[in-house]
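With this grant's support, we have settled on a layout for protein records. An illustrative entry appears below exactly as we store it:
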Amino acid sequence: MIFSPVLTRLRPIWRDALALLYAVRDRRTPDRARWIAAGALLYALSPVDLLPDGVPLLGMGDDLVIVPALLAYAARGLPAPVLADARARSARLSRQVPWLLPALVGLLVVGAVLAVWGLLRLARG
């Protein structure tokens, strides 16, 4: 498979992101961790950034640094039993739905190709 090395590296990140989603939904999760995770999601979806996305390389770089840092900070605020339960649930789901991660990576690649194609069309006028 073409994307095998990429999928191998993305699999633990996917599992941890899914585990954080499960942990945030758990009643035992402290409100602070929930707010930080919600803030990371809002920052990722918000059109307002510290560095505008139009700035080459740096615009997307702040999203790639700030969002994972906030999510890691939220995960550190989780109680150990909550995190262990959430990781177990995400590992079970990852085994049950093995096609989901390759499908998401494929969608990202198609989206990137379409974005580059659109930019090239705009540049040609």
Remarks:
- DSSP finds five helices and no strands in the chain.
- The CA atoms of residues 71 and 107 lie 23 Å apart.
- The chain has a mean pLDDT of 77.
- Helices lie at 4-25, 31-45, 58-76, 80-96, 100-124.
